[in-house]
Amino acid sequence: MKVKFRVSHYPQFGCGPFLSVFSGTILDVALTEAIQCRKTLADYDKFLWDKNMKSSYASATFIEMWEDFKWVSFDSCRLQDEIKEKDPAKWLIENIRRNPL
User: Fold this and answer.
1) Quick check: is 90 in a domain?
2) Residue at 70 is within a domain
């Protein structure tokens, strides 16, 4: 199954978004790439802010997922619930990695 994620970055409210799509057959890879893109855009905005090159407006960045033939807001909690239902062992292993004792 092919998965698609899209990063929608609005450099300033009121203007159109910069869009970048990440797709693949492995969910973790496509999602990791989308998260890295979002982080890079946030780091760039912070750099501009710190250097006083950007002021008096805000940007916004969202990750969306292609689902049922439309882009929907990505909800990592819902994804975790789906993994838990389909493969409880994988869900348990991932949560142990994230929250070691």
Assistant:
1) no
2) yes
